[in-house]
Task: structure prediction
Amino acid sequence: MPYIEQNRRDEINQGDIPRNEGELNYAIYKLLLQFVNYQGPCYSTFNGILGAILGAVLEFYRRVVAPYEEQKREYNGDVYL
Result:
């Protein structure tokens, strides 16, 4: 966990957008803790969180990263032989 400055934690907690990877990590972590506090700490909650995170990662890759990489492959040429 990146330990970002307290003033940035406060700003992010009030809805400010994270400005770097450490702040994004913090924002995601805080959201997960809020969900655990709402649902209650148990295996089902933790398992559901991990499934949701994995789904979000896969969707982000499919919709954002893969098209970007495809553009770069077309522009720079394929490295697969």
